[in-house]
Amino acid sequence: MTSKPLRVGVFSSKVYDRQYLTAANQGRHELLFLDTRLQADTLPLVKDIDTVCVFVNDRLDSTVIEGLKAHQVGHIALRCAGFNNVDLDAAKAAGISVSRIPAYSPEAVAEHTLALILTLNRRLHKAYNRVKEGNFSLDGLLGFNVHGKTIGIIGTGKIGMAFCRLLQGFGCRVLCHDIQEQADIGAIGAQYVDLDRLFAEADIISLHCPLTPDTHYLINDQRIAQMKQGVMLINTSRGAMIDSQAVIRGLKSGKIGYLGLDVYEMEGDLFFRDLSNEIIQDDVFLRLATFPNVLITGHQGFFTHEALTQIANVTLNNLDAFAKGKSDPNTFLISQ
Ligand code: NAD
Q1: Do 151 and 252 fall into the same domain?
Q2: Kindly report the CA angle at 335 between 330 and 336, in degrees rounded to 5?
Q3: What CATH number should be reported for the domain holding residue 227?
Q4: Residue 217 — left, alpha, or beta (φ > 0 → left; ψ -120 to 50 → alpha)?
Q5: 100 among known catalytic residues
Q6: What is the C-alpha separation between 18 and 23, in angstroms, rounded?
Q7: Catalytic site residue 299?
Q8: What is the pLDDT of residues 188-239, one digit of tens each?
Q9: Does 100 contact ligand 1 (Cβ within 6 A)?
């Protein structure tokens, strides 16, 4: 690379970010790893930094973007696919370009979705503990065959399609909904239907669309009322697509029979940290966690070796392109 190396502030970085990004960087940029989240009160940390590299719970609202502009930060490199946490209009107005990782192993998230479904259904999380304690009773572990069930998939982009492909081996009926339909959905044994039909007929509903004003609280009291009694609901997309209070009501009434979450609407205050010695203040989260038929993972759908390798390589490509000051076909700019 002939261009000037960048000083990159890598916010919300963990040991694994350091490991994979350092390996991909091969010394070409100066990566400053910060475990702090980027938000209004941490803005002073961007002093003398050319670019920030951020993740899902960094908060790049208009105040933070104004601050980045004041510190002459020229680029925001997201190391994730979703970009609901960045005010793109403010970034454009500030002349700050934004890049992301549009696809880093959709199979990683699709496989985690399947893991949540199978674990919840066969209650593996409970069986594991029971057997460890010498309790081999099967009472309370009764599951159902996924074979023959109807699966509703909302959002058939990269992850939704990867999930559809995984389901091909199960002998399910797959009903999909998307605002942009894929021409080849029939070839993988699925079909598009409207949302009303999907909610009414699906035994398992899985969310795979981005968080937008249209999908915010997509799962609310009205939609839950449309669902089958005892439905399984899975969200590996973004937490705010589900109204958590409505889902708690659905769980209490028995309408929702199983809930699998990898994301949570207030996860920014909880996830990616060890809070095992803290008093968690979020009563909604704690209520959700008490249900025996709820399984929550802390936004780990993406967390595979293949995905971290891809995230690191594409992030470095995006940084190289910004350093060279030109558009590169391999750069995933969402705003410039
Ligand atoms: P994608 O852009 O390839 O696909 C998203 C699909 O959703 C598109 O087909 C789009 O048309 C559709 N869509 C948009 N608005 C819709 C609406 N109102 N109703 C129905 N469909 C709608 O994205 P992807 O790579 O498949 O990722 C999907 C989401 O998964 C991301 O936005 C992100 O929030 C989430 N994600 C989670 C993890 C994790 O670790 N849990 C990792 C990566 C991505």
Answers
A1: yes
A2: 85
A3: 3.40.50.720
A4: left
A5: no
A6: 8
A7: yes
A8: 999 999 999 999 999 999 999 999 999 999 999 999 999 999 999 999 999 9
A9: no
Q: Which residues contact 119 (CB under 8 A, 6 or more apart)?
A: 125, 260, 295
Q: How far apart are CA 266 and CA 245, in angstroms?
A: 12
Q: How many CB atoms lie within 10 A of CB 332?
A: 20
- What's the rounded Cα separation, in Å, for the pair 54 and 57? 8
Instruction: Identify which of 140, 120, 107 has the alpha carbon closest to the alpha carbon of residue 260.
Output: 120
Atom of ligand 1 nearest to the CA of 182: 9
Could you tell me the distance, in angstroms and rounded to a whole number, from the CA of residue 136 to the centre of ligand 1? 40
SS3 state at 8? strand
Please indicate whether residue 213, judged by its CB atom, sits closer than 6 Å to ligand 1.
no
Residue 195 beta carbon below 6 angstroms from any ligand 1 atom: no
pTM value is 0.92
At residue 331, what are phi and psi to the nearest 5 degrees?
Answer: -95, 130
Catalytic status, residue 267: yes
Range of the domain at 321: 7-104+304-334
Q: Measuring CA to CA, which residue among 303, 317, 302, 330 is closest to residue 158?
A: 302
Is residue 83, in this structure, part of any structural domain at all?
A: yes
Q: Same domain, yes or no, for 157 and 267?
A: yes
Q: Which of 245, 206, 249 is nearest to 225 (CA)?
A: 249
User: Per residue in 81-137, pLDDT tens?
Assistant: 889 899 999 999 999 999 999 888 999 999 999 999 999 999 999 999 999 999 999
Same domain, 177 and 192: yes
Q: How many CB atoms lie within 10 A of CB 221?
A: 13
Q: Is the CB of 280 under 6 A from ligand 1?
A: no
237 is a domain residue: yes
